Every structure is written in structure tokens, then in C-alpha cells.
Automatic annotation (TrEMBL):
GO terms for molecular function: oxidoreductase activity, acting on the CH-OH group of donors, NAD or NADP as acceptor. Residues 1-24 are annotated as: Disordered. Keywords: Oxidoreductase. PANTHER family: NAD DEPENDENT EPIMERASE/DEHYDRATASE, NAD(P)-BINDING ROSSMANN-FOLD SUPERFAMILY PROTEIN. InterPro entries: Epimerase_deHydtase, NAD(P)-bd_dom_sf, NAD(P)_dehydrat-like. This is NAD-dependent epimerase/dehydratase domain-containing protein. It comes from the Eukaryota. Residues 26-283 form the NAD-dependent epimerase/dehydratase domain.
Length: 361
């Protein structure tokens, strides 16, 4: 697996070898989401005990019904909107993976056409920030959490330079300007603000309270999935096939911003989370993208894996930025899956799921 085997904290490995203690416990928030559920699967397969936090415990047990290592899984009801809700889930854990996030992409206008920005602040951004701090406060109270891994998003980055040109390389330093996001309100602007502001609040709280926090900046993540419905990021990748206008508009916006579509396989994304939890040298933010691929290349792969899809439009592939995960690679992580795997695994499971129709031959 990317980043090397099923290692854990060194002292716990020695104890496990001696047969004196059970494997360490870790907590995953957002455990019924795409990344969260696959992360639970990955951690169980690595030998960890996992505390899966979810608002709907019945849904969580359905998602994990057939997962390997289920005897080491505990499910806890927790809600980011409730103070202290994560205390039980975090108790006894050495690490927490904060994969839960608001997926609000728009806010309906209120009566009298009130200020949309104030509505976004009050109904999305402030609750999201409070919820993240609630989770971190539980970590502080637990007293055992040595590392927090925060799931961030490539939507917080841009290749656009100050004078309108495109940066040659995009990395963790290429943050989108918040004032510009508020002013221009691009596609997905509420999600962008939510991720940027909650991540900044998380790092600030961690510094002030002695928590060791790192973040994983994920691009469009796709591949197999455990969730009952097809994850939004996979639907985004497949939007050239399905023709979903909102998702295709979002995909086109990503391509316009970078000149390519940054991608990661779900297994690489989850392996990177575990790698950063286990790595004693991990600090700060890490972009986790196997590469950035022109939409024309992605479309050709989609057509090859799903013959009913016919290439019907040209995609501008000029001046693509290089999406760099150099910080993560320099730490020792290695990606195991390229774009061909990502497309093949996504199409295969969506055919099995019924989201895509089998071609009649």
C-alpha cells in the first residue's frame, strides 16, 4: 500500500508483538461519507481498532456490514452541532481523522432577498467552524490523541496567478484568495469558503491547545466505494458521461482553474491519511494528488471503459499546471494508482451499482 505497510505507533507495535495490549484505537468522523467509510475500511485492514462517528448509527452499521475486521469496529453516534458529542467516540484514541464536512454548495435566498453572504456565514460557515472546534475540544478532553488528520480540499487552491496567468506548478502554497472568492462567487464558492475557514480554525485551535494537526488536501477522489449511493466526487468525474449539468459545470470550472483535473484514487487518498497519522515528521498541509490530467485524456479513458459514451466535444488542454504532491512524496509516500485505475474502478463499480447502464452488445 502507498506509504508502506500497516505500521502504527512504535511503542504500540512493540506491545502488540509482546501480546500485552490490543492494537491502538483511532476515531474517524464523517464515517458514512465516501472518504470516511473507505478510511474506516483501510484502518481496519491495517489492524487498528476504529471508533466510527456518525449521526446515523444504523446507516453506519449498514455501510460496514461486510467490512473486514469488523470485530475491531465500534460505532458512536455524534453530531458536530452538539457540544461534547464526540467525547465518547474519541475516548481512548491515539489519533483522530476529521473527514466530516459540510457539503452545502448553495443557500436558498431568504424572504425579502436578504443578504446572501450573511445567510452563508450564519447557516453554513459558522456552524461548520463550531462543529470542527467541537470535535477538537473532545480530543483535548480525551488527553490521549497524539495526531489529528484533517481532510481538506483542492478547491482551496488555484493555479491562477496575480496578473491573470496560470502558475506552472500548483502546490500547498497556492491558496485561493478569500476576498476574491467572496467577490466573484465561483462555482462551489460556499464549499470553498467552508473548507478554507474550518481548516484555518482547526490549525489555530490545535496550536493554542497543544494538538498535533496535519491536513490532507484531496483533489477529485474516485474509485470503488462502500456508500449506498454513488459519491458526489465520482458523479463529478463521470459527468461527461451522464451529462449532469451542475456537476459538469463544476468539473469544467476545476479544469479551467488548473488546466487539468487533479485526481486521486480513493485507496491512495486513505493510505495518505494513515501515512500522515503514522509519520512522526509530518507537519502542516499536504496535497495528495496522483497527478493532474487534461479533460481530453480523462474523456478518452471514460470512452474506452464505457463504450456508450462518445466523445462529442473538444477540451482545451493548453497551459495545464503541474499539480505537485512533492511534500508528501518527500516524506516517503508513494501513489499506487494512476488515472487509468481511477477511471476503470469508478466505471466498473458504477456499472455494478446501476448508476451507469450496461451497453447492449
Amino acid at each position: 500500500m502507498g506509504g508502506g505497510g500497516g505500521g502504527g505507533w512504535p511503542e504500540e507495535e512493540e506491545q502488540a508483538a509482546a501480546g500485552s495490549d490490543p492494537p491502538p484505537a483511532v476515531c474517524v468522523t464523517g464515517s458514512t461519507g465516501y472518504v470516511g467509510s473507505w478510511l474506516v475500511r483501510t484502518l481496519l485492514r491495517r489492524g487498528y481498532r476504529v471508533h466510527a462517528a456518525a449521526r446515523d448509527t444504523g446507516k453506519a452499521w449498514r455501510v460496514f456490514a461486510d467490512v473486514e475486521g469488523g470485530d475491531r469496529l465500534r460505532v458512536f453516534r455524534a453530531d458536530m452541532g452538539e457540544d461534547g458529542s464526540f467525547d465518547a467516540a474519541v475516548t481512548g484514541c491515539v489519533a483522530l481523522f476529521h473527514a466530516a464536512a459540510s457539503m452545502e454548495l448553495h443557500v436558498s435566498p431568504g424572504p425579502g432577498h436578504d443578504n446572501i453572504e450573511e445567510r452563508v456565514r450564519s447557516s453554513v460557515l459558522e456552524p461548520a467552524t463550531r462543529g470542527t472546534i467541537n470535535v477538537l475540544r473532545s480530543c483535548v478532553r480525551a488527553g490521549t490523541v497524539r495526531r489529528v488528520v484533517f481532510t481538506s480540499s483542492v478547491s482551496t487552491l488555484t493555479a491562477a496567478g496575480a496578473e491573470g496567468w496560470r502558475e506552472a506548478v500548483v502546490d500547498e502554497s497556492c491558496l485561493r484568495d478569500l476576498a476574491d472568492v467572496w467577490r466573484t462567487k465561483p462555482v462551489g464558492w460556499i464549499y470553498i469558503l467552508s473548507k478554507r475557514l474550518t481548516e484555518a480554525a482547526a490549525f489555530r485551535f490545535a496550536r493554542e491547545n497543544g494538538l498535533h494537526l496535519v491536513s490532507v488536501i484531496l483533489p477529485t477522489v474516485a474509485g470503488p466505494f462502500l456508500t449506498p449511493s454513488v459519491p458526489t466526487s465520482i458523479q463529478l468525474l463521470l459527468s461527461p458521461i451522464t451529462g449532469d449539468p451542475k456537476l459538469y459545470s463544476l468539473l469544467a470550472s476545476v479544469h479551467a482553474r488548473f488546466g487539468c483535473v487533479p485526481l486521486a484514487h480513493i485507496q491512495d487518498a486513505c493510505d495518505a491519511h494513515v501515512f500522515l497519522m503514522e509519520s512522526p515528521r509530518a507537519e502542516g498541509r499536504y496535497l495528495c494528488a496522483a497527478g493532474g490530467h487534461p479533460m481530453a485524456e480523462v474523456a478518452r479513458l471514460l470512452a474506452a471503459r464505457y463504450p456508450p459514451f462518445k466523445l462529442s466535444r473538444d477540451f482545451d488542454a493548453s497551459s495545464a499546471a503541474a499539480v505537485s504532491s512533492r511534500r508528501l512524496l518527500d516524506l516517503g509516500f508513494r501513489f499506487e494508482h494512476g488515472v487509468a485505475d481511477i477511471v476503470a474502478d469508478s466505471v466498473a463499480q458504477c456499472l455494478d451499482h446501476g448508476f451507469l447502464e450496461h451497453s447492449e452488445t
